[in-house]
């Protein structure tokens, strides 16, 4: 009756926690392992120009819609310039302005980018409008008309029309029409603009998109490539202006989609812009947080990640205490190790975090041993309990100070990191150990002391295991699973390992004692 | 020597019906001992008062020490007493019990023969008051009471100190019993953890069967070399029915009752224990579980007897020590 209720509760708690962990892991992409790394690209736009006299304004188009990627951080580096961001229907731009400038000017914009959770490309939502047709002279105007007519005959809709046009325009052995037309655009970007203009002549809404291919190279320089986006009345389709392939490539970061030029420097056509792309591997955790913030700010705002860094550090430690307590529960209730105090081993294990395990155990044994000697002497002074404890505490602090000073003299760093070593706990341990020594003999006292150390050491090893620490901090729900397990163990009524050892004499008898005959009537 | 095999050991112990600490706590202590009645067994002063009210014999109370300053007064109040025992009201496992068997001038003579100055005596008492010996370390009070003149019947098999008899009572039925004999190792204390011997008592006959010393099964006292098998416990019937009555007295379903046999006054109740029952199984070489289940079955059938004497009779008929 009560047991089923307990099991039910434990199962409910555990499955809720498991579901939460699963959601965070699979949907929100929180990394399960601390060393999980993600690709991070840093895109840097370097703008150089010679300023004219008087005020100068530089306008740079910034990424807004970035299918497949998330912009996690951006920086503007422009000394002495005022920086103003502006978002409009056409996109986002930054305006750098300066009243007086001399010498070559260099401005930087740096964006940090990671792949976003959803890899599918969202619908591009631009206002459809017609590109301005290029002004062509004869015989190019006629050539354009005949090319467009020929393409029209061999296409079914807007998208196939655009693809066919690109295909013809890029043929290895072009027709005469194309050959004449190909002379007009000089660069890759101009070619895309030219094609957009041709499509505009046939009333097809089209845009030129600029994107940067993000590769696997560590560092590349590059310039944005152009893509054509055509509107078929319902949605935008992207066409590569060279290969004619449809769709937005998954490894290209869409920089700007505006009709405006990428970079505009007032009355200064000689400005140059250079892009450099560097690829790094970054801690997945560091990236998950800003990425999540972009997707759903509330999830971060109400999680441990929203706390100040120092508080986060404290919680990293605090959240491990239940884990240590659970280890102690296992050792005490399943194995039957005897320790001083219920949670003392966990607190000692916490202290080991500062000192390291070997040094911590040596320090513990040293201070406890010295404290015990003093305590045995104090027994003869007949002090009352509370003053005696206080006296021991004072001596423990002095002992530790002494250890620190000595180890410093000897050039050992360990003794210095004792700040958190729980002095009160040590004083209590000394007191209890000395009482146990007198009441139950040295053997018992030593056994319990060693038991305490063993449990503390094991708890420390588990608590300081980085993958677990990471797991508990990122998924505090793990503690709920621990809670459920604790509930289940709360009704464990089997033998403890040490008990079996203690009672082994009974079991070893040649003729086990027959149980009572079953009661009848 | 064979290797220690936990799984085989566990299987054998299960067959014997040996109850582990986890099972005792989960299935018996937690299920049958209401929290609110714990003070009745944890505070020896309350136990004593309840026992007196129920007409059960206990050692006479000479004084209660609650405050530090009462210690000085105590020397005067005890000046007419040659022998007495000081024990913390919340002590466990015999911790902090001071047995004074005589005086030499200003000094007290302890049971082990050591002399103790007034200062040392006062220090021990003030430790007790501060809670050094109590379970949670809370401030405690001390009982000064009659020092039991133990029955010489056990002189051959105890090394100084007072042997005591423990009977485990489940739902009012005495289910298992043992006598604890002090040894040289235990310093005259009847505590198995400190080296005393536990000797199982066959409930139907009231005779000792065999003993355990540490984890070792024995048939002779290690100090006196006298056999500890077949000793007959005096007043056995009386002991069983008094133990049975402690169920009503304490309100506890699963309780251990400790007796001493006084030369003059017969059996006296020393204290009750809410968490007994591990070492006693070793001493008897029998598991408790089968007997406990038998009582549970009795209760489930609605045949539980409200008369303590009838329950003691049932125990004598049904709970022999085997093996």
Query: What's the structural domain tally of chain B?
Result: 2
Give the overall form of chain B.
Answer: globular
Structural class of chain B: alpha+beta
The CATH homologous superfamily of the largest domain in chain B is termed ATP-grasp fold, B domain
Largest sheet of chain A: 5 strands, antiparallel
Question: How much beta of chain B, percentage-wise?
Answer: 15-25%
Q: How widely separated are the two ends of chain B?
A: 23 Å
Average pLDDT metric of chain B: 87
Structural class of chain A: alpha+beta
Strand content of chain A: 15-25%
The helicity of chain A comes to 40-55%
Cα(first) to Cα(last) distance of chain A is 26 Å
How many strand elements of chain B? 13
Number of strands of chain A: 13
Envelope shape of chain A: elongated
Task: List the total number of helices of chain B.
Answer: 10
Question: Can you walk me through this structure?
Answer:
The complex is a heterodimer of chains A (521) and B (323). The longest helix of chain A is centred in the last third of the chain and has 41 residues, at 423-463. Chain A has helices spanning 2-26, 140-153, 158-169, 176-181, 188-201, 284-295, 297-301, 309-318, 321-335, 344-355, 357-379, 385-409, 423-463, 466-474, 478-489, 497-502, 504-508; strands at residues 37-49, 56-62, 69-77, 82-88, 91-98, 105-115, 206-213, 219-222, 225-231, 236-239, 252-256, 263-265, 272-283. A 5-stranded antiparallel beta sheet of chain A has the order 3-6-1-13-8, with helices on one face. A 4-stranded antiparallel beta sheet of chain A has the order 4-5-2-12, with no helix packed on it. Chain A has 3 domains: 37-122 and 213-226 and 241-295; 130-204, no CATH class; 321-463, no CATH class. In chain A, 47% of the residues lie in helices and 19% in strands. Chain A is built from 17 helices and 13 strands. In chain A, α1 (2-26) packs antiparallel against α15 (478-489), α10 (344-355) packs across α11 and α11 packs antiparallel against α13 (423-463). The mean pLDDT of chain B is 87. Chain B is of the alpha+beta class and 323 residues long. Chain B is globular, with a radius of gyration of 20 Å. Chain B has helices at residues 6-16, 21-32, 38-42, 44-53, 70-77, 118-130, 236-250, 279-284, 289-300, 308-318; strands spanning 61-65, 84-88, 98-104, 107-110, 115-116, 142-146, 164-170, 173-181, 197-202, 207-213, 216-218, 254-262, 266-273. Chain B has 2 domains: 17-56 and 151-318, 2-Layer Sandwich (D-amino Acid Aminotransferase, Chain A, domain 1), CATH 3.30.470; 61-146, Dna Ligase, domain 1 (2-Layer Sandwich), CATH 3.30.1490. In chain B, a hairpin with a 4-residue loop joins β9 (197-202) and β10. Chain A binds chain B through residues 333, 336, 382, 384-386, 435, 439-441, 444, 490-497, 499-509, 511-516, 519, and chain B through 2, 4, 6, 8-10, 12-13, 15-18, 20-23, 25-27, 68, 95-96, 119-120, 122-123, 126-127, 130-132, 193-194, 212, 215-217, 278, 281-282, 285-287, 290-291, 294, 297-298, 318, 322-323.
């Amino acid at each position: 009756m009560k047991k089923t209720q307990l099991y039910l509760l434990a199962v409910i708690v555990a499955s809720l926690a498991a579901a939460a962990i699963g959601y965070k892991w699979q949907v929100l992409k929180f990394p399960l392992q601390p060393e999980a790394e993600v690709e991070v690209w840093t895109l840097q736009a370097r703008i150089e120009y010679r300023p004219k006299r008087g005020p100068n304004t530089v306008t740079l188009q910034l990424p807004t819609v970035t299918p497949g990627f998330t912009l996690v951080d951006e920086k503007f580096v422009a000394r002495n310039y005022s920086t103003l961001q502006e978002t409009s229907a056409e996109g986002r731009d930054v305006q750098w302005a300066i009243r007086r400038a001399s010498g070559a000017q260099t401005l930087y914009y740096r964006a940090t980018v990671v792949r976003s959770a959803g890899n599918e490309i969202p619908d591009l939502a631009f206002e459809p409008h017609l590109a301005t047709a290029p002004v062509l002279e004869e015989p190019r105007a006629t050539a354009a008309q005949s090319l467009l007519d020929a393409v029209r005959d061999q296409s079914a809709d807007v998208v196939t029309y655009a693809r066919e046009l690109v295909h013809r325009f890029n043929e290895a052995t072009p027709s005469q029409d194309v050959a004449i037309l190909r002379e007009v655009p000089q660069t890759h970007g101009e070619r895309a603009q030219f094609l957009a203009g041709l499509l505009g002549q046939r009333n097809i809404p089209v845009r030129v998109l600029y994107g940067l291919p993000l590769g696997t190279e560590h560092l590349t320089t590059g310039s944005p490539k152009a893509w054509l986006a055509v509107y078929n009345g319902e949605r935008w389709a992207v066409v590569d202006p060279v290969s004619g392939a449809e769709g937005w490539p998954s490894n290209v970061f869409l920089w700007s989609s505006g009709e405006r030029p990428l970079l505009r420097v007032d009355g200064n056509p000689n400005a140059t812009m250079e892009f450099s792309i560097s690829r790094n591997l970054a801690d997945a955790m560091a990236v998950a947080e800003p990425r999540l913030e972009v997707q759903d700010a509330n999830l971060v705002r109400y999680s441990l990640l929203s706390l100040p860094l120092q508080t986060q550090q404290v919680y990293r430690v605090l959240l491990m205490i239940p884990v240590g307590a659970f280890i102690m529960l296992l050792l005490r209730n399943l194995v039957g190790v005897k320790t001083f105090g219920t949670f003392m081993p966990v607190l000692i294990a916490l202290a080991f975090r500062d000192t390291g395990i070997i040094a911590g155990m040596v320090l513990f044994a040293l201070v406890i041993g010295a404290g015990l000697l003093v305590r045995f002497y104090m027994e003869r002074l007949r002090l009352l309990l509370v003053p005696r404890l206080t006296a021991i505490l004072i001596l423990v602090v002095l002992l530790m100070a002494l250890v620190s000073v000595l180890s410093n003299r000897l050039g050992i760093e360990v003794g210095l990191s004792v700040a958190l070593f729980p002095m009160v706990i040590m004083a209590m341990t000394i007191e209890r150990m000395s009482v146990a020594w007198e009441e139950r003999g040295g053997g018992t006292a030593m056994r319990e002391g060693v038991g305490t150390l063993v449990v503390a050491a094991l708890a420390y090893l588990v608590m300081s295991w980085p993958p677990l620490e990471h797991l508990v901090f990122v998924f505090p729900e793990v503690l709920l699973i621990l809670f459920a397990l604790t509930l289940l163990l709360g009704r464990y009524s089997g033998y403890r390992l040490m008990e079996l050892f203690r009672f082994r004499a009974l079991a070893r008898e040649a003729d086990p004692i027959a149980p009572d005959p079953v009661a009848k009537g | 020597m064979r290797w220690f095999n936990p799984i085989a050991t566990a299987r054998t112990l299960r067959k014997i019906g040996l109850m582990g600490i986890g099972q005792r706590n989960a299935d018996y202590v937690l299920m049958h001992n209401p929290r609110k009645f714990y003070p009745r067994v944890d505070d020896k002063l309350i136990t004593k008062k309840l026992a007196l009210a129920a007409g059960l014999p206990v050692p006479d109370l000479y004084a209660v020490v609650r405050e530090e300053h009462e210690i000085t007064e105590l020397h005067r109040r005890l000046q007419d007493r040659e022998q007495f025992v000081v024990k913390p009201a919340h002590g466990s496992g015999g911790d902090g019990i001071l047995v004074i068997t005589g005086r030499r001038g200003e000094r007290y003579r302890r049971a082990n023969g050591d002399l103790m100055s007034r200062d040392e005596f006062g220090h021990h008492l003030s430790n007790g008051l501060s809670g050094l010996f109590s379970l949670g370390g809370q401030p405690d009070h001390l009982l000064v009471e009659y020092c039991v003149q133990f029955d010489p019947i056990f002189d051959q098999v105890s090394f100084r100190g007072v042997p005591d008899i423990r009977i485990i009572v489940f739902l009012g039925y005495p289910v298992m019993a043992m006598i604890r004999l002090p040894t040289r190792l235990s310093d005259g204390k009847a505590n198995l953890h400190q080296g005393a011997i536990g000797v199982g008592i066959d409930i139907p006959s009231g005779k000792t069967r065999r003993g355990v010393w540490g984890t070792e099964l024995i048939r002779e006292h290690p100090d006196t070399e006298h056999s500890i098998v077949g000793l007959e416990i005096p007043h056995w019937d009386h002991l069983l029915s008094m133990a049975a009555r402690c169920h009503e007295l304490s309100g506890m379903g699963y309780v251990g009752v400790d007796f001493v046999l006084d030369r003059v006054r017969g059996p006296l109740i020393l204290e009750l224990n809410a968490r007994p029952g591990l070492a006693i199984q070793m001493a008897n070489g029998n598991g408790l579980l089968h007997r406990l289940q038998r009582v549970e079955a009795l209760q489930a059938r609605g045949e539980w007897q409200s008369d303590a004497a009838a329950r003691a009779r049932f125990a004598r008929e049904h709970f022999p020590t085997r093996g």
